From TrEMBL:
Keywords for the protein's UniProt record, in alphabetical order: Membrane, Transmembrane, Transmembrane helix
Regions that span the bilayer: 23-45, 75-94, 115-141, 147-169, 210-233, 245-266, 278-301, 307-326, 338-361, 373-398
Domain of life where this protein originates: Bacteria
Pfam families per record: DUF6350
Official protein name in the record: DUF6350 family protein
Organism: Brevibacterium senegalense
């Protein structure tokens, strides 16, 4: 009996094809999600007789806002929870591309596929370029996004952060570092010494713990503000025709800005304050009365200066210090190089987050709202760095005292 002829192996696993297919998955996931949200919004607003052609416009506007672009009509504050979701989708797509390229490389080494120069770079760049093209076209041409300097900076930061996490981070939680990360550490070790390579790894761990501590501090501050400002939030809702419906609707909208609210709480506790308008900034050390939009969470912002406001300045350094040297095994990896690299990372991360926590929320003085970028970056970074450096200094003193016994 004659044997069945073998079909030729499909040899279309070119890096460009891999990157394009993964980009298509990202585009479909993003596109279908925002279209579904836009359709739901159209049905909710059906009483306003909006034309059906507004659905793709709303979908594009949602992508533009999530990407960090400022919108026409005087709105420039990104819904950072959606931006965080977009960041996660980008990281997931680039990681899948990286894994597919790694599997492709195994086939190349076995001789099943022809080799391609710069295969990994080609595939990842293809995926990123196609996704960026989709986001720009959907957000700026279809949606109501505006091409502004702040929007460009935020968009580039979002893409750069997603690319770095996807390329240098592990494929899975608690997994091994990527080969690109290992190659970077090897290069640093060869040129600057093994101590600097170890310091980079240690700084990444310290930065994660300090970031987690900052989130906990900000969440605690936000909860305290909501609890103490409960009556003011009720007064803000009382101006609506249906306070219950307004509370539900505004509550859903406020959830889209939870990361922004956490950063604003941290900015206030660090002494930088919150910019309520072009002329009003509230902080633990200022008394400022200003009109804000009738949104419950904004009504909870303390506009008075408590006599114990200086105590808030101690919270972030203490939390950062505990996150740096709260355990013995954490102290073992600390040295001056780790502290310097951690300080640089804190400044970069704080500056990037501050750019996403500021923007216009309307006309008539509300063109500037959120975290004052320079002040927040300086004071929040200073508080965290003081905590990290202080913890390292105390660990040195403890080690010296132990050695003298």
């Amino acid at each position: 009996m004659p044997s069945t002829p073998a079909f030729p192996r499909i040899s279309s696993r070119h890096p460009v094809v891999i990157g394009a297919l993964e980009a298509l998955r990202v585009v479909l996931a993003l596109g279908l999600t925002v279209l579904l949200v836009a359709v739901v919004a159209w049905f909710i607003a059906i009483a306003q007789l909006q034309p059906l052609r507004m659905v793709p416009v709303w979908a594009g506007t949602l992508l533009a806002a999530s990407s960090g672009w400022e919108l026409s009509g005087g709105w420039g504050l990104p819904p950072t929870l959606l931006s965080l979701g977009l960041f996660a989708v980008l990281v997931s797509g680039l990681r899948r591309t990286r894994r597919a390229l790694a599997a492709n490389e195994v086939l190349v080494r076995s001789g099943s596929l022809p080799a391609t120069r710069y295969a990994a770079t080609t595939g990842l760049v293809t995926c990123l370029v196609l996704v960026v093209a989709f986001l720009v076209l959907a957000g700026l041409l279809v949606g109501a996004g505006r091409f502004t300097g702040l929007g460009v900076v935020r968009f580039v930061l979002l893409l750069a952060a997603a690319s770095l996490v996807a390329v240098l981070g592990p494929d899975r939680r608690r997994g091994a570092a990527s080969r690109w990360a290992m190659a970077l550490l090897d290069t640093v070790s060869d040129r600057a010494g093994a101590a600097w390579a170890d310091a980079i790894e240690g700084a990444v761990l310290v930065l994660r713990r300090v970031g987690a501590a900052a989130v906990i501090v900000a969440a605690a501050g936000l909860l305290v503000a909501l609890a103490t400002g409960w009556s003011a939030m009720g007064e803000a809702l009382s101006g609506y025709t249906d306070p219950t419906a307004a509370g539900l609707g505004l509550g859903a909208v406020q959830l889209l800005f939870v990361p922004t609210l956490l950063h604003l709480a941290l900015s206030w506790m660090a002494g930088a304050g919150i910019q309520l308008s072009t002329v009003a900034v509230v902080s633990p050390f200022t008394d400022q009365a200003a009109l804000v939009p009738a949104v419950p969470v904004l009504a909870a912002i303390p506009t008075g200066s408590p006599v114990w406001g200086w105590a808030f300045l101690l919270v972030l350094p203490l939390a950062a210090g505990v996150a740096t040297a709260g355990r013995r095994q954490w102290v073992d990896v600390l040295d001056w190089r780790t502290v310097v690299l951690t300080a640089g990372g804190i400044v970069c991360v704080t500056a990037g987050l501050s750019l996403f926590a500021t923007g216009a929320v309307g006309p008539a003085g509300l063109e500037a709202f959120g975290a004052p970028v320079l002040t927040t970056t300086g004071l929040v970074s200073a508080g965290a760095i003081v905590g990290v450096a202080g913890a390292w200094g105390l660990s040195l003193l403890a080690n010296r005292a132990a050695a003298d016994r």
